[in-house]
User: Which sequence fits this backbone?
């Protein structure tokens, strides 16, 4: 399980390293029309608290996706164990197949 978690967590770092090794040579189509939208906040603390409250939803979504993925992996593991029991191999699991 730790290897799977490390794989997902290292994806942004590997993308950053790939961009350093092989930078884009063409002009990006998405970067030229970006404009900074001025918020309605007057103070820095107000803007930080509003950003933190918006981030709560994003973090909750990420955590729920991780829970769903782990649950689907456990169900798949249970199905493989059940099928392995039918074919006289009760130790069959997803981790055994991947290792």
Assistant:
């Amino acid at each position: 399980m730790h290897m799977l978690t490390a794989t997902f967590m290292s994806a942004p770092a590997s993308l950053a390293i790939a961009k350093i090794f092989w930078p884009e040579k063409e002009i990006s189509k998405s970067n030229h029309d970006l404009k900074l939208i001025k918020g309605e906040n007057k103070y820095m603390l107000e803007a930080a608290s509003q950003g933190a409250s918006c981030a709560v939803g994003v973090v909750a979504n990420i955590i729920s996706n991780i829970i769903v993925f782990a649950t689907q992996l456990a169900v798949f593991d249970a199905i493989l164990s059940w099928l392995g029991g039918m074919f006289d191999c009760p130790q069959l699991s997803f981790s055994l197949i991947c290792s």
User: Anything to note?
Assistant: The chain has a mean pLDDT of 84.
